[in-house]
C-alpha cells in the first residue's frame, strides 16, 4: 500500500478541478447540517477529512509557485487564490456550522477525548475570529477583506521575487573579488568575449558572499543599497494591508490587530509581549554597545551598514582564528544531510531511506522515515538556490497524520526548502555553518509535524499549535548544530574524508556568540517594529518613522536613510507572522531551557529528550504548548537559559 500522495500538479486542469472540489464540499456541508442528531463522528470527523483532502490537493500548487515559479504558476495561483479564499471565508463564517460545533461541544464534551475537545474548542474560536456570529453585512465586508489580503500578500511576495531576480552586478576587476571564497567565485564567474567576469545577484548565497568577503567598499554599498531598496511598490501594499487588518480587527471586536493576533497565541496580552521584548532589549543593550564599539575599533573608522558583515568576518577570523571558508569543505551538502539523519537516528530512533520518486526538480529528493523500524512519514528536501525559487528557508506540511473514519491511518509528509549554494558537476554545494544551522532549524519544524501520533488532523503535527510556540521545536533542534559530538558525525572534508578537528570545533563553539548581543538587538528591532506597527494604524511615512524611532533604541549602528527594510519584510506582509514576529524570541526561551536541561543530562541518554519526543513532538497541537511544556519540564519556562545560551549576561 502506498501511504503517500504522488507529487503532481496539473496546471492546465487545476482551476476547474478546484472549483469542482469546493462546490462539492459546499454541498456536503449542507447534507451534514441536515442531520438530526449531530455528534463528533458523524459531523465533525467528515468535515475534518473533507478539509484535509482539499489541503492535499491545493498544497502542490502553492509549493510549485514557491520552488518552480513561472508565469504559468503565477497565473494559476493568482486565479486559485480568490476561489480558495472565498470558499474558506464562507466556511469560517457559516453560522449553522458554528452553532453545530457549539452544540456538540456542550452536549458531548464529557464523552470526548482530549484531541476531539481541542478540535471543537479551536473551531469554535476560529468561527468567532472569522465573525460567524456577526450580521450579514459585516460578514460580507470581512469576506472582501480576506480576499484582498490574500491577493496583496501574494503580490508582495511576487514583487520581492521579481526585484531580487532583476538585479545583477557585473564585476570586471579581479582585485574587486580578491578574498571571496573559491566556491562562491566559481558560481559567480562567467566569460564575456573571452574576458573573465563575475556576476553577483541579490539571491541570498550570492548577496552574502559579496557582503561578507567583497573587498571593494563601493561595490558592497551598491549591492547593499539594491537589496534594502527592493520592491518600492510594496510600500503601497503595506499601507493597504495595515488598513485592512485594522478594519478587520475592529469588526471582530478587537481594538487593534495585535490584540486579534494574540487570541491564538501563548502570550496573554499586548503588555506581556512588549514587556518581554523590552526586558530582553534592556538585558542585551550594554553588551551590544560594547560589541559595536569593538567592531568600529577593529575596522579603524566609523563603519556603515554595508561594512558590518565584512569587518565582522575579519574580526571573527582574528579573534577566534576562525575562517568561515576553511569550514565549508567539511560541510558538503549531502554529507550534512546524511549527518543530520544519523543524529536523528541516535536521538529519536529515526531512519531515513531515499526513494526513487520523480519530483518537481532534479535536485529535489524524498525520503521515507522509519521510527523503530515502522514506516511513519515522508520528507521532501529541496535545498539549492535557483532563479525560479523564492528566497529563504521554510518547512511546509503536506499530509497530516490522522486516523480516518474507516480506521485507517494517514501518515504525515512535509517539505523542507532552503537556498544553499548550487552544486554542479565540477563543484559540490559547500555550506557555511550558518546553512547547517538553518537545515537543523527547518528539520526541527519537519519532525514536529512528521512524528505526530495525534488522530485528529486539525490538531496533529503543527496544526493547532500556538503561533508563538511553533518555533520551539525548530530552535531546539538547531542548537545541536553546535554540539561537538553531533558535528563529529558529519563534518568531514569532502575530498579527504578527514573529520573536522577538535580545535576547529572548539573555535566554532567559542565564536557562536560572537556579536550575539548585536544579533539579539536586530531580532528585537524586527519584533518590536512588527508588534507596535499593529497596535494602531500607521500609513505612508509613519511606517518608516516608527521603524526609525525603534532603531534609535535598538540599532547602535544606524542604517542609511534610504533603507526600506519593511518593503522586504515578507514574514509579516506575505507570511503568517503579522503581530507575531516576537514568536521567534518567545519560542527561543522554551527551546534554550529544554536544550540546556538535555545537554546537562547527557544528550543521547537524556530522559528529558525521550520525554520531548513523546510529549512535544508526538502530541502536536492537541494541547496548549504551555501545558505540554510544564508536563515536559515540571515547571514554567525560564528566560535565563536563553541569555546564557547567547552568551549575554
Describe this structure in words.
Among the domains are: 14-92 and 94-133, Glutathione S-transferase Yfyf (Class Pi), Chain A, domain 2 (Up-down Bundle); 167-228, no CATH class; 329-515 and 584-645, Neurolysin, domain 3. Helix content is 57%, strand content 8%. The protein is built from 26 helices and ten strands. Strands 4-5-6-10-7 form a five-stranded mixed beta sheet, sandwiched between helices. Strands 1-3-2 form a three-stranded antiparallel beta sheet, sandwiched between helices. A two-stranded antiparallel ribbon has the order 8-9. Strand 5 (365-371) and strand 6 form a beta hairpin. Helix 15 crosses helix 18, helix 17 (472-478) crosses helix 23 (583-601) and helix 20 packs antiparallel against helix 21.
Question: What descriptors fit this protein?
Answer:
three-stranded antiparallel sheet, about 650 residues, 26 helices, Neurolysin, domain 3, five-stranded mixed sheet, Glutathione S-transferase Yfyf (Class Pi), Chain A, domain 2, about 10% strand, alpha+beta
Over the alpha carbons, how many angstroms does the gyration radius reach?
A: 25 Å
Global structural class: alpha+beta
Average pLDDT metric: 95
- Name the CATH architecture of one domain: Orthogonal Bundle
Overall number of strands: 10
Shape: globular
Poorly predicted runs are none
The description of the largest β-sheet is:
5 strands, mixed
**Counting H and I runs of at least 4 residues, what is the number of helices?**
26
Q: How do the strands of the widest beta sheet line up side by side?
A: 4-5-6-10-7
| Main CATH class of one domain | Mainly Alpha
As a percent range, the share of strand residues is 5-15%
Distance between the termini: 55 Å
Helical content stands at 55-70%
Oligomeric nature of the chains: single chain
Give the CATH topology of one domain: Neurolysin, domain 3
Amino acid at each position: 500500500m502506498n501511504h503517500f500522495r504522488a507529487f503532481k500538479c496539473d496546471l492546465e486542469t487545476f482551476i476547474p478541478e478546484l472549483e469542482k472540489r469546493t462546490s462539492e464540499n459546499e454541498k456536503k456541508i449542507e447534507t451534514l447540517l441536515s442531520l438530526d442528531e449531530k455528534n463528533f463522528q458523524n459531523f465533525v470527523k467528515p468535515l475534518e477529512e473533507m478539509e484535509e483532502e482539499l489541503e492535499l490537493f491545493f498544497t502542490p500548487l502553492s509549493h510549485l509557485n514557491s520552488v518552480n515559479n513561472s508565469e504559468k504558476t503565477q497565473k494559476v495561483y493568482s486565479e486559485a487564490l480568490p476561489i480558495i479564499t472565498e470558499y474558506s471565508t464562507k466556511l469560517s463564517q457559516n453560522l449553522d456550522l458554528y452553532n453545530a460545533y457549539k452544540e456538540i461541544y456542550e452536549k458531548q464534551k464529557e464523552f470526548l477525548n482530549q484531541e476531539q475537545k481541542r478540535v471543537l474548542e479551536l473551531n469554535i474560536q476560529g468561527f468567532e475570529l472569522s465573525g460567524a456570529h456577526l450580521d450579514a453585512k459585516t460578514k460580507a465586508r470581512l469576506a472582501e477583506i480576506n480576499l484582498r489580503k490574500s491577493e496583496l500578500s501574494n503580490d508582495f511576495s511576487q514583487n520581492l521575487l521579481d526585484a531580487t531576480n532583476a538585479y545583477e552586478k557585473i564585476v570586471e576587476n579581479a582585485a574587486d573579488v580578491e578574498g571571496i571564497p573559491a566556491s562562491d567565485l566559481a558560481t559567480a564567474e562567467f566569460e564575456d568575449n573571452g574576458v573573465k567576469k563575475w556576476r553577483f545577484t541579490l539571491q541570498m548565497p550570492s548577496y552574502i558572499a559579496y557582503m561578507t568577503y567583497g573587498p571593494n567598499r563601493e561595490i558592497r554599498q551598491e549591492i547593499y543599497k539594491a537589496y534594502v531598496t527592493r520592491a518600492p511598490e510594496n510600500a503601497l501594499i503595506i499601507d493597504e494591508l495595515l488598513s485592512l487588518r485594522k478594519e478587520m480587527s475592529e469588526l471582530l471586536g478587537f481594538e487593534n490587530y495585535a490584540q486579534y493576533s494574540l487570541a491564538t497565541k501563548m502570550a496573554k496580552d499586548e503588555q506581556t509581549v512588549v514587556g518581554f521584548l523590552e526586558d530582553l532589549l534592556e538585558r542585551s543593550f550594554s553588551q551590544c554597545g560594547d560589541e559595536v564599539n569593538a567592531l568600529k575599533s577593529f575596522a579603524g573608522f566609523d563603519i556603515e551598514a554595508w561594512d558590518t558583515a565584512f569587518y565582522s568576518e575579519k574580526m571573527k577570523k582574528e579573534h577566534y582564528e576562525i575562517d568561515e571558508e576553511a569550514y565549508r569543505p567539511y560541510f558538503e551538502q549531502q554529507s550534512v544531510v546524511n549527518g543530520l539523519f544519523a543524529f536523528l537516528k541516535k536521538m529519536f530512533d529515526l531512519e531515513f531511506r531515499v526513494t526513487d520518486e520523480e519530483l518537481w526538480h532534479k535536485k529535489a529528493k524524498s525520503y521515507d522515515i522509519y521510527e523503530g523500524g515502522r514506516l511513519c512519514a515522508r520528507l521532501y528536501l529541496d535545498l539549492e538556490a535557483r532563479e525560479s525559487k523564492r528566497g529563504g528557508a521554510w518547512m511546509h506540511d503536506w499530509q497530516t497524520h490522522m486516523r480516518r473514519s474507516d480506521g485507517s491511518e494517514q501518515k504525515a509528509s512535509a517539505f523542507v526548502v532552503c537556498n544553499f549554494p548550487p552544486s554542479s558537476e565540477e563543484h559540490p554545494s559547500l555550506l557555511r555553518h550558518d546553512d547547517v544551522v538553518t537545515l537543523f532549524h527547518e528539520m526541527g519544524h519537519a519532525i514536529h509535524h512528521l512524528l505526530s501520533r495525534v488522530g485528529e488532523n486539525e490538531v496533529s503535527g503543527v496544526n493547532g499549535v500556538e503561533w508563538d510556540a511553533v518555533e520551539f521545536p525548530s530552535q531546539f533542534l538547531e542548537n545541536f548544530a553546535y554540539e561537538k559530538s553531533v558535528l563529529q558525525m558529519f563534518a568531514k572534508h569532502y575530498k579527504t574524508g578527514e573529520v573536522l578537528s577538535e580545535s576547529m570545533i572548539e573555535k566554532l563553539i567559542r565564536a557562536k556568540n560572537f556579536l550575539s548581543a548585536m544579533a539579539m538587538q536586530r531580532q528585537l528591532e524586527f519584533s518590536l517594529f512588527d508588534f507596535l506597527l499593529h497596535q494602531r494604524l500607521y500609513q505612508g511615512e509613519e511606517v518608516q518613522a516608527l521603524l526609525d524611532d525603534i532603531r534609535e533604541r535598538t540599532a547602535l549602528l544606524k542604517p542609511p536613510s534610504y533603507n526600506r527594510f519593511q518593503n522586504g519584510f515578507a514574514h509579516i506582509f506575505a507570511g503568517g507572522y503579522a503581530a507575531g514576529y516576537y514568536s521567534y524570541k518567545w519560542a527561543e526561551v522554551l527551546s534554550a531551557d529544554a536544550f540546556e536541561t538535555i545537554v546537562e543530562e547527557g544528550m543521547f541518554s537524556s530522559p528529558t529528550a525521550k520525554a520531548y519526543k513523546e510529549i512535544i513532538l508526538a502530541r502536536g497541537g492537541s494541547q496548549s504548548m504551555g501545558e505540554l511544556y510544564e508536563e515536559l519540564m515540571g515547571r514554567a519556562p525560564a528566560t535565563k537559559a536563553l541569555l546564557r545560551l547567547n552568551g549575554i549576561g
